[in-house]
């Protein structure tokens, strides 16, 4: 019995799709999961470094070029994963984009472009849901463990879902929706034995943030109560592993932010 429980909490052999897996938080998750013995499908844009990463990681990882908003792309990625690794146990949704535009720019006398708002919602919110709804169709085929569990889904929101800053109307709305759908999706999938948990990261040191000048990055880090530094992508990856391993986490969003509450 002890051995069985032990095996259950390891990532060994778990097949995982990580969207946004070629960069930042997704990439750290890919690397950690491969180290822990999982098989990983790196889902990312064709223009990303997904192929290079897969080559670097060897036979435990494959690259599936995709746009999270496309039904065909996701189906192809899932089929590729099944062909290569035989099943799908875990989905980590880490693909996402950020923009910063005010609702109305009074200097330029210009309203926020509707296309920009729509694009962010399309990728962050609809893209996340698109991958979830299609991945579930494969997870339900898994043999259930002692708890009846067949799969785990992890989404990436943001602390902007709760305290969005100036210029973050679209981004905050897109991530707020990810937080809001976590519970109903967990409820929807409870009969299938699939857990759904969302992480709301604070400020992490990824290529997304590297675009900012060093001065701004230092200023941002100082706004974090403790520890007063940007999060390391490995710390995000560590939480994804903990979520997979802990059978009671479900239907919840976890802030991972060093107590950061973003100011206007
Ligand atoms: N870095 C932070 O401080 C921070 C904070 C809060 C939330 N987040 C969220 O975490 C997630 C990962 O962010 P990151 O910092 O690692 O950024 P990143 O830019 O390093 O990685 C994001 C990845 O998503 C991919 N991607 C973008 N649009 C896509 C699409 N349409 N289809 C498929 N892939 C797509 C990109 O190619 C990239 O590889 C995002 O959802 C982001 O909003 C990041
Ligand atoms: C992904 O698809 C969305 C719309 O479906 C589109 O707006 C976006 O440009 C696409 N991204 C890339 C990089 O092709």
UniProtKB/TrEMBL annotation:
Transmembrane segments: none
Presence of the UniProt keyword Signal in the record: yes
GO biological process, one term: fatty acid metabolic process
Matching InterPro entries: NAD(P)-bd_dom_sf, Sc_DH/Rdtase_CS, SDR_fam
Swiss-Prot/TrEMBL keywords: Oxidoreductase, Signal
Coiled-coil region(s): none
Keyword Signal in annotation: yes
GO molecular function: (3S)-3-hydroxyacyl-CoA dehydrogenase (NAD+) activity; androstan-3-alpha,17-beta-diol dehydrogenase (NAD+) activity; estradiol 17-beta-dehydrogenase [NAD(P)+] activity
Pfam families documented for this protein: adh_short
Gene Ontology CC annotations of this record: mitochondrion
Family: Belongs to the short-chain dehydrogenases/reductases (SDR) family.
PANTHER family hit by this protein: 17-BETA-HYDROXYSTEROID DEHYDROGENASE 14-RELATED, SHORT-CHAIN DEHYDROGENASE/REDUCTASE
Name this polypeptide is given: 3-hydroxyacyl-CoA dehydrogenase type-2
Gene source species: Ceratosolen solmsi marchali
């Amino acid at each position: 019995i002890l051995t069985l429980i032990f095996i259950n909490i390891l990532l060994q052999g778990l097949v995982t799709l990580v969207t946004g897996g070629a960069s930042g938080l997704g990439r750290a998750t890919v690397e950690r999961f491969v180290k822990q013995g999982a098989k990983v499908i790196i889902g990312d844009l064709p223009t990303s470094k997904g192929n290079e990463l897969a080559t670097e990681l060897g036979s435990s990882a494959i690259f599936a070029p995709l746009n999270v908003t496309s039904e065909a792309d996701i189906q192809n990625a899932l089929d590729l994963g099944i062909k290569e690794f035989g099943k799908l146990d875990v989905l980590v949704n880490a693909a996402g984009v950020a923009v910063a535009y005010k609702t109305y720019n009074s200097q330029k006398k210009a309203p926020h472009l509707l296309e920009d708002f729509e694009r962010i919602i399309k990728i962050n919110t609809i893209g996340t849901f698109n991958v979830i709804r299609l991945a579930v169709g494969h997870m339900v085929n898994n043999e259930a463990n002692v708890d009846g569990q067949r799969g785990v889904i992890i989404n990436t929101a943001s602390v902007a879902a709760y305290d969005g800053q100036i210029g973050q109307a679209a981004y905050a709305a897109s991530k707020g929706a990810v937080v809001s759908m976590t519970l109903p999706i967990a409820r929807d999938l409870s009969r299938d034995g699939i857990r759904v948990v969302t992480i709301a990261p604070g400020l992490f040191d990824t290529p997304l943030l590297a675009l900012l000048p060093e001065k701004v990055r230092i200023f941002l880090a100082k706004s974090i109560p403790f520890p007063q530094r940007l999060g390391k992508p490995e710390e995000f990856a560590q939480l994804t592993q903990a979520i997979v391993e802990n059978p009671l986490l479900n239907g919840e969003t976890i802030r991972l932010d060093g107590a950061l509450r973003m100011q206007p």
